[in-house]
Structures are given as C-alpha cells and as structure tokens.
C-alpha cells in the first residue's frame, strides 16, 4: 500500500474527512479497477465522478463516435469532438481532471468471447452504461459467469433506475429484473430523454460504485431505485430472484 502524497491528502480531503471514511478507504479507491461500458450520457457522468473521486484505473468501452445529438447529455464532449471516437475524447478530458488515474480504452462492442471474460475478471466492478436491453443482458451474463459485481442503470424519457448485482446467494440478477419489466427494447433514440436525467442516474451509479469499492454504508442486495423526474420522486423496490431465471437460478436448489 502506497502512502498518499500531501497533494493527494489535500485533494481528497473532503472525502477522507467523511465520518467512517478514511485514508484506508481512499486507498482502496486508488487501488480499484473499474470498467465502464458505454460512454454516453450515463458513462460520461460515471467516468467523470469516478476519476475525480480518485479511482485508480478506469477502462472505457464504447464502439461509437461523437455525434451532434450526443452533446446535450454527454458532458465530456464538445462541438469540435463530433466524428471522433468517444473513448479517445473521454480519456483526454478525464486525464485533464485527474492525471493520477490510469485510463484504458476499448473502441469495441462487448461480446461473449473468452477475451471479454478475461477483461471482466481483471475488474473490481463493471458499470453498465449502455442503453439497449440486449447489451444489458449480455453484460449481466458475463458478470454472472465471472462473478464480477455489476451496477446497471437505465435512463429514458423522464425516468431512470439503478440497481447493483453482487452475486450473493438468492440475490436477483439483471435478467430477473428485466423479467419483471417485460421485454421492452426501447431506447432513447425512439423515446427521447431529458439531458440532466442521465447526469442524475450516472451520478447514482458512481456513488454506488464508490460505496461498493470501499464497503461504505449499508449493503442493499436486490434493491431497485427508481427516479421519476416528471413527479420529482424516488422510489425503492425490493426485487426477488426469479426461481426460473435462466441466468442466476439454481436448477437443483436444496432450499
Ligand atoms: Zn436472475
């Protein structure tokens, strides 16, 4: 464990000063490896807060380039970035905010191959910032297979949700959640989204990542947080494991 420099102690002072948060927890952030899949509205917020909070290594994954319609939500990108790879611009912008963090980039789609399993295994946590059901299901599968914790979220129209999956016994997975909410494949492209919504939801994902990485605050397995921006309200629901889930259910459970 490396000692923090005076500069780092000064930099992270407001976090280290928090009750029950200390240098040891800040060190855990410095040692952490986090993969952010999707550098869109959610991913820009997540990456910005994790880099600025002192997470040591961020891997940014996104196959796309910046386009004009991204700019209202994707706060790491500027007008002059249109046409450039999102992961490249994001890395440059994040390095300006915190040069002590290591940034790795993959301009690629996630697939079920062994290469992606190996990439997942190297992470402490995966943050799903994609906006399609099929991508989320695939990331859920890979996280279940590799037992890497997952923070999933969605933001569409004026609603967003966040839920973490840590693979404890009887804990639901994303597939259990999507089973409850049906097979809607809608995305922001068809349904629209109000720009700050992705900032709120991405910030919640970043907060959950920091809490998980440092074991700070209470654990909330199976807790689903819903933000209804139209009605200025947050709601939490307890999601149960689907006993017939094709991903996480134990076929011959003895319980
Ligand atoms: Zn499941």
UniProtKB/TrEMBL annotation:
InterPro entries: ThiF/MoeB/HesA, ThiF_NAD_FAD-bd, Ubiquitin-activating_enz. It comes from the Bacteria. The keyword Transferase applies. Residues 12-246 form the THIF-type NAD/FAD binding fold domain. The keyword Transferase applies. GO terms for molecular function: nucleotidyltransferase activity. This is Molybdopterin-synthase adenylyltransferase MoeB. Signal peptide: none annotated. Pfam families: ThiF. Keywords: Nucleotidyltransferase, Transferase.
